Amino acid sequence: MYTLQELAQKAKATPASGRGAEAVVRTDAEIQPDIAVSPKSATQASRDKATMYNDDTAVQQGWVFPAIGVSTIINWLLRYWWLILLLAALGAAIGIGFGKTAKPRFNAGTDILVAPSNLQLVPNDVYVPSVQAESQLMDIESKLRLLTSGNVLQRVVDELKLQDDPEFNGTQTGLLSGILGGAKKNADSANPEQAKNIAALRELSSRIEARRPERSYLINLTVWAQEPEKAVLLANATAKAFQEEVAQNEQDGAARASRALTEPLNELKKAATEAEMKVAQFRNAQGLQTSNAGELVSTQSLTQINTQLVAALTRQAEAKSRYDELTSANNQALDPSSTLQSPTLTALRTQYATLKQRLDAMAMTYGSLYPELVSTQSQIAGLQTQIAQETSRILRAAKLDLDQANSVVETLRRQTEAARSAVSLDTDAQVTLNDLERDRLATTALYQTYLTRAQEIAQRQQIDATNIRIVSTALPPKSRSWPPGTAVLAVAGAVVGGGLGSALAMLLGFVGLMRAQRRAAYAVN
User: Fold this and answer.
1) Is the peptide bond before 39 cis (omega within 30 degrees of 0)?
2) What structural domains does the chain harbor?
3) Which end of the chain is more exposed for a tag (fewer CB within 10 A), N or C?
4) Under the phi-then-psi rule, with left for phi > 0, alpha for psi from -120 to 50, and beta for the rest, what region is 161?
5) Tell me: the pLDDT tens digits for 68-88?
6) pTM for the complete prediction?
């Protein structure tokens, strides 16, 4: 058997010849309905018919693939106009029915601004702000994925109770499922509540779309539902849940950092306490005492003793100089210009000078036996005795001052030697003490740093530093996004039905043409 295409090619390749071939006898009445007559001259039409009828190879093969023109197609369409009109009306009816019965979709959207860096609320934040554009874009893309993550969707499901909503939990039945008697979903589940929650999450995930426009920090969030008010609630709740989830992630990160810093605090505190105890015990064992300035008390004592010794040596030198001077002036006690000076000695010297002057005057006038002269001489002798006694007293006082100065100097020198020995011993112990102090300071500083940082991060958990803002809240849509309007569906259904009807009409015409040609070929044979 040959196909129609092979038969047509053979018919064109074989030259027309009437020798030894059987003529195919077809009347004009048989050919006219199936073959379109082209606008040619009558002579040319007769010649084409003769060529077709005398094609021996075509007759032998069965039939030839007919030539179809535009007029033939138009004739087919006009012949089956009722079929085209019927399918167009049926398509319009289906479109109207679909528009009336299909579940509508209402889209609601909101815009969220995701800034590349958080708010700088604390000077020493746990999160380091990124200044590189590529890192900022990666952060925004990560948050874009977070917007449609399971945690955010679970927040929305819990807030709006979507697990109890038939539209989301898989228990809603449509018209077709009601007619066919379809069973409800999750009816046989071992845990119906969990199954409803999972169904709500999956349904909500399929209804959310989030995208970021190029060269922008905005995120466009779109959610659809069967009711416009519900679509608005879903969009706003999703944006709010996204903000809360980002803030919660940062708080969780701060909490982990706080726990990581808090865990070694006990060990650091113990180490700092042990270091301080070692310093105190060593200082007590060695008798080391320091002043407020951190200087050893023994060193301070040595400095003070040296200062006192210098002062004592000065007083000793002064006392010795005075004593030597008083000793050398002992024979000049009656001289008013003598260094031996005291109020009593001055008064005695004055009395002595007065009596001596009187005595000299009476000696020149009276004799040696004059009674008053004798009395004056007796008074002068008494004054000389008193002056001698006063002079002795002054010398003894000077000697006592010199002895006290010598004693103080000797005592301070002994104390200086003892202090120097103590300082020498304390200096050796101070080296070890300095090592212990350095270890104490390092351990204490590390413990204080950890403690301060842990407290800062613990307070940071209570602060929401995320810089995410909803720049436009969702508004109820004016019209549904799916399905299109009933009029549009009716027109589309009519167009599709008319197209199918036209295709079916052309198919029926072509089948009729092929059958007619086949009957003619069999009739000749």
Assistant:
1) no
2) 4-94+485-524 (no CATH), 105-263 (3.30.1890), 279-460 (1.10.287)
3) N
4) left
5) 788 888 888 888 888 889 988
6) 0.53
